[in-house]
Amino acid sequence: MKIVDASVLVCGPGRNYVTVRIETDEGVTGLGDATLNGRELSVAAYLSEHVLPTLIGGDPQRIEDTWQQLYRGAYWRRGPVTMAAIAAVDLALWDIKAKVAGLPLYQLLGGASRDRVRTYGHAAGRDLPELFDSVRARQAEGYQAIRIQSGIPGLQRVYSIAQTENTPGMPVVEDWDTAAYLRHIPGVFEAVRNEFGPELPLLHDVHHRLTPQQSARLAKSLEPYDLFWLEDCTPAEDQSALRLVRQHSTIPLAIGEVFNTVFDYQTLITERLIDFVRSPVTHFGGVTAVKKLLDFAALYQIRSGLHGPADISPVGMAAAVHLGLAVHNFGIQEYSGYPAQAAEVFHPGYTFTDGHLRPSEAPGLGVTLDEQAMAAHPYRRDYLPYNRLLDGTLHDW
Ligand SMILES: [Mg+2]
């Protein structure tokens, strides 16, 4: 079997997605996700100019060797653009291998370790009544674990709360005041616990905005509310920052959605500074790399909590669901659904019932693509927001 064609498909059904399609001489086709939110075309160019031409004529069954060629052979290792490109090729090759075997991907990863994959959804509100309505809406959709984000008194535009554009075509600028946030958030969790009871698993994302000292204070103040995890409390690239948080709190910690390789986790895992690894298949070099990460994490009783916003395409999400069903140290899967138009382009195969995902039983990843519908939804330039303190200083987003 030989690879005879490999192409990049870029579309924008509600938001932008970058998909790789690899075709073989035996008519088997594989799909991969290369979507890097806000930097999509950089990965598309990396793939079409530097990666895909080198695959033509190669053996699609040699997944590990292809991965090593793209990682070690490029000399320039790591980084989100490189690792998203490698991930897309890796997913497409796993898709092909599983289709050739006539099995859903999770069967090639060891088979099912559970019946279904638990997810968490997102609830957010400017104030408590709006937040409670949002939690109830997620519960009505079936979610059994919920991430809580809240507006902060005195701030107009806060992460994950409804925003308005500043200047059309330019990034949204959000507001931040760490002192106001640290004063406000414990009361939000106390109110949510009082309203929804002790059993609902609650999560919270700090979006890398605190110092280690501030994070330790927040973690201690949230301990009475029994969080499932506290996410991204410090800037992720500073692995040693979590030592101070760990010394002061038993709150479970999750980090890693901006990591690209296992080396980003080396200190965090071996020193047991975290409880959940967050890297999505799409930005971490694919199934090959995330399976190794999870096996490494398992040695330290650290579980999966893979990143799953709407900018991980349904192709990347399908791969996460197969992995989540198969690995023993599964924790939870983030899943917030997709824009309605995305369903015209991607037919994901997996199902979402009672807050749980279950992969397709079709051979491969189980995702199919409607390329005609894709043409009706072209790419549109878009940006991630950025964040400023009240005096105008740029802060972490
Ligand atoms: Mg996060």
Map the helices and strands:
Layout: E1 3-11, E2 17-24, E3 29-33, H1 40-55, H2 63-71, H3 80-101, H4 105-108, E4 117-125, H5 128-140, E5 146-150, E6 173-176, H6 178-196, E7 202-205, H7 212-222, E8 229-231, H8 241-248, E9 253-255, H9 266-270, E10 276-277, H10 286-298, E11 303-304, H11 314-326, E12 333-334, H12 342-345, E13 346-347, E14 351-353, E15 356-358, E16 368-369, H13 371-375, E17 386-389, E18 394-395
The protein binds magnesium ion (MG).
Please, could you describe this protein's structure?
Residues 129-252 form the Mandelate racemase/muconate lactonizing enzyme C-terminal domain. GO terms for molecular function: magnesium ion binding; mannonate dehydratase activity. Its EC number is 4.2.1.8. With 397 residues, this protein is an alpha/beta fold. The chain folds into two domains: 3-104, Enolase-like, domain 1; 108-362, Alpha-Beta Barrel (TIM Barrel), CATH 3.20.20.120. The protein contains 13 helices and 18 strands. α5 (128-140) links the parallel β4 (117-125) and β5. α2 (63-71) packs antiparallel against α3. The site of magnesium ion has 5 residues, from loops.
